[in-house]
Amino acid sequence: MIGVVFKERQQVTVREFFQLFKVPFEKYINGKHYDVIITTEDFEIGNCLPKLLIVSKNGSSIFDSKHHIGLSEKKTGVLLSGNRYKVPIYGNVTTIKSSGVPILEAIGEKIIGGVRIEGGGQKIIRIGYDIFDEIEFLLKIGQGIENAQIPTLENHISLLREWILDAGVPIVEIPPIPQGYDFIACLTHDIDFFGIKDHKFDHTFFGFLYRSLSPFGGSGKKTSFKNYRKNLRALMSLPRVYSGLTPDFWYPLDRYSEIEKGLKSTFYFIPYKDHPGLLPTAELPKYRAARYEVRRYVNQIRELINNGHEVGVHGLDAWCDTDKGIDESEVIRGITGDIKTGIRMHWLYFDTDSPAKLEKAGYYYDTTLGYNDAIGYRSGTTQVFRFLDTSNLFELPLHIQDTAMMFPKRMGLSDAEALERCREIVNDMEKYGGALTINWHDRSLAPERNWDGLYMELLQLLKDKKVWFATAMETVSWFERRRNIVFHSVVFRDGKIRWKISGAEKKDMPGHIVRIHYPLKHRPKGEPSTSNDFCTYRDISLFGNSEFDEAIPTG
Predict the structure, then answer these.
(1) Together in a domain, 51 and 104
(2) Which of the 8 DSSP states describes residue 348?
(3) pLDDT tens, 230-258?
(4) Are 451 and 200 in contact (CB under 8 A)?
(5) Are residues 372 and 419 in the same domain?
């Protein structure tokens, strides 16, 4: 059991953090023995010394003088590295001066952000930042694109896990990994267009005309002959498309069904035609408005649902206006008949007040938090989380977006470069678990973008892994069920681990697992386990069990 001492204002953050690092914990009770204590606040520890005390504070602590720890200046914007993990620190970092072993050091600077001290059968980790303030920043504000590639929150969890295991304390954890898989893949599509037939001599039409005729396709990089020929053929077919004699090459639904071949995906539809939306102080550009009327496609949308796909709201004003958010959801709910609805904002508009507005409008989840000009981890996590200012609204972070990678004024990557960047994120998912959320837009499979080849390569990369392909709604529901699992007791005694857990459900989706991490020096004899360089672990299925109570030998 981990005892946690924290500032009163950090209560919600602590609770959410331990839904992501799902291990047994409780608010510290004076006089009770804990194997591990994590503190961001001064307190009297008494005689019940833990095996590991982690002091996380960006200023002086009562533990510093007792353990001869010196402090020097504070600094912001420090990138720390510990073992294999990088953690950008967004608040203050106090430099630690001690004879202990450095465990966190700044990259490119002479700053020690954390040390390990041993003595009297006890280990102390002293780090110079407040971990729960860092978690709050990630979940409320998020990272800038300079650190987009770092899963910072997951690295905070990994560092804590390693420090605990290094102190000789086993860990019982419910990881964000579906039973039988390594991670979840969530394929999503923003439907900004339903066909080029809706665009005649407007901003979109002339943009298509220019990019189709240009040998560079408007990207700054020379278009392949094959794609250039596809663009010219599409351009020449326009009269027949407008007259209805030829299928519209921008119509997205059939093409996605063909490429994804039975995989589940989620489509977000714009609720209003010719409505660009509003900023709090000004009207948005008119070309943000969709030119299609979603109610014209009721049969097609319901066919998507019948084939196992999900349909959600591609919101316009919901991010800044609760009443408009209700109206937008009612349009899509009127088509789908679903009570629970998810949303992604058009152009990824979002601010710190958006979660409360979306929750009040009745949305089950949002999946807006990503980057328009980068790919990676805006919230620093691979996991679904609950917004700190809400009670019921979940966030499914967006990790990979086609336009962010491929548009010339954004990342401007080639297909090969984009696939390699995607591969790096897929490797992270295999390492941490969680849900990889991909957004591939409606036009991206068609001329003049022609990103269908890249998308098929990305799908094949995922198919070669142990991946559960799920809709956004299924993904969020799986994480919500994981949150509902409760540790009633976890006891390490007489060379055994005993626990009791309730709330595990499977229903119509993969179940959950308990992962027992053993420090290497406590490796269980004769037990099947998986090893890495700092621990061994054993996975035990939880699905189908509402109660669980078992003893596992620890060697």
Answers:
(1) yes
(2) G
(3) 989 999 999 999 999 999 999 989 899 99
(4) no
(5) yes
Number of domains in the chain: 4
CATH number, domain with residue 38: 3.40.50.880
CB neighbourhood size of 221 (10 A)? 14
Please check whether residue 19 is in contact with residue 172, taking contact to mean a CB–CB distance below 8 angstroms. no
Return d(Cα 378, Cα 350) in angstroms, integer.
13
**3-state SS of the chain: helix, strand, coil percent to 5?**
30, 25, 40
Is 163 domain-assigned?
no
Asked if 288 and 300 sit in the same domain, the reply is yes
- Interval 89-100 mean pLDDT: 91
Residue pair 351/320 in contact (Cβ under 8 Å)? The answer is: yes
**Is 70 exceeded by the pLDDT of residue 456?**
yes
Angle at alpha carbon of residue 524, lines to 521 and 529, rounded to 5°: 105
Which domain covers residue 245, as residue numbers?
200-249
Cα 5 to Cα 223: distance, rounded to the nearest angstrom: 58
Considering the domain architecture, whether residues 469 and 368 belong to the same structural domain is answered as yes
- Residue 161 has which token pair? 């896990």
Res. 544: pLDDT tops 70: no
Based on the number of CB atoms within 10 Å of its own CB, is 234 exposed (0-12), middle (13-18) or buried (19 or more)?
Answer: buried
CA dihedral 346, 277, 450, 302 (to 10 degrees): 70
* 255, 278 Cβ separation under 8 angstroms: no
DSSP 441-476: -GGGGSTTT--HHHHHHHHHHHHTS-EEE--HHHHH
Nearest 5°: phi and psi at 505?
-130, 150
Residue 175 lies in a domain: no
Rounded Cα distance, 57 and 54, in Å: 10
Q: How far apart are alpha carbons 261 and 468 in whole angstroms?
A: 15
Instruction: Name the average pLDDT for the chain.
Output: 90
What is the pLDDT confidence band of residue 506, given thresholds at 50, 70 and 90? low
Instruction: Give the mean pLDDT of 296-313.
Output: 96
Is residue 543 pLDDT above 80, yes or no?
no
Give CA–CA dist 22/482, Å, rounded.
Answer: 9
Written as six digits, the tokens of 350 are 């979002």
Instruction: Using DSSP bridges, classify how beta strands 70-82 and 101-106 pair: parallel, antiparallel or unpaired.
Output: antiparallel
Q: What is the mean pLDDT of residues 284-303?
A: 92
Say which residues have a Cβ less than 8 Å from residue 229's Cβ, sequence separation at least 6: none
Q: Say if residues 467 and 425 touch (Cβ distance below 8 Å).
A: no
- As a dihedral over the C-alpha atoms of residue 438, residue 440, residue 445, residue 450, rounded to 10 degrees, the angle is -90
Of 182, 151, 174, 175, nearest in space to 469 by CA? 182
Q: What is the pLDDT of residue 525?
A: 45
- The whole model's pTM is what? 0.93
Structural domain contains residue 7 = yes
Task: Evaluate if residue 369 carries a pLDDT over 90.
Answer: yes
**Three-state SS across 35-65?**
CEEEECCCCCCCCCCCCEEEEECCCCCHHHH
Distance of CA 206 to the CA centre of its chain: 37
Q: How far apart are CA 339 and CA 352, in angstroms?
A: 26
C-beta separation of 514 from 172 below 8 A: yes
Contact predicate 66/51, CB 8 Å:
no
- The answer to whether residues 263 and 238 belong to one domain is no
